[in-house]
Amino acid sequence: xxxxxxxxxxxxxxxxxCPRCGLPLMVVKEGLKYRIRKGxxxxxxYSDMLPRINGDFFSxxxxxxxxxxxxxxxxxxxxxxxxxxxxxxxxxxxxxxxxPREVFLKMSGDFSRSISLYATKMRSKVVVSVGxxxxxxxxxFYARLGCDLCIECVKEPTVRYGDPYMIEGFxxxxxxxxxxxxxxxxxxxPVESGILLFSIWLGFKELLSIGAISEVPAMIGARIMExxxxxxxxxxxxxxxxxxxxxxxxxPQDALSATIQLTKAGIYPRPISxxxxxxxxxxENNYVAILTGSPLIMRKHVGGGSLTSLQRELLExxxxxGRATAYQVWxxxxxxxxxxxxxxxxxxxxARGLLLRTVSVRGKRRVIYFSVNRD
Length: 375
What we know:
The protein is an alpha/beta fold.
């Protein structure tokens, strides 16, 4: 059963928005518990807060993304998910519920990359509709996954971004931040459609409803101004504003400057995502800025099985450094893992063809460098 949180409209059909209010519909659930299943993979650590499914959960290790300090702000790095964005959280839930044999998609950035990655790993047939002017590097990603490609052939996609089960996965960011930090002062979320902000807000509201938290943390939506103005309001933004969610308008140049600043720290957000960091840096200490994903196409699953969170982080670090020794990578990570463990993981990535391993001879010393394999 699906229900509108505002007007109470209910349906058991395949709708994803309330026909009265225009809000995303939410999945009606009973018996919610905030219990962390330590042995579970991905978002299924919080399965007692998610819809019940028939059969097995499906996961590629999404979620439990790191939180990194940058100045007085905390950054939640959602680009560490398997396809490079928070979309994987929603995809893991949707695909576990629906278990589709066929998936029809229109090429649409992070969303279609995530769905196609998970669906092909589940051995579903995936058909992706390509636009006449879409970039060849994007098309290559789907081709290497084994998707069927066609020019503007899909009229009605199998799933949409605002699907209620996608929202169920997105909301796990709330549970995860609570698990990682305990006391959450506030979050800043980048806003375009408002779906992600709505989802995280919903996660905290559900935690509040079962007594897992005493109040919903302060929540702020960060928006980039266009031509000196913010975009027109939509039903989601208007509803969240009525629920004491605040919004901050970020100057486009500030968002761009923050993007450049973050790339120097090995983080590659889009400007809309960097806007959350800009907003967080202007308010109180220890607000969490959600960095939703990287524009870099993630190829880590295309040629092999899923990677551990450490391996994903190592690939990001090596990419940001150009080339590096195991010791340099270890120093960059701040000693969060053992040097021996880093070396083993780097060699494993090289064996899978994701990193290149080169040897430089300096006198009697052999120095081993690792770099990202771009072939």
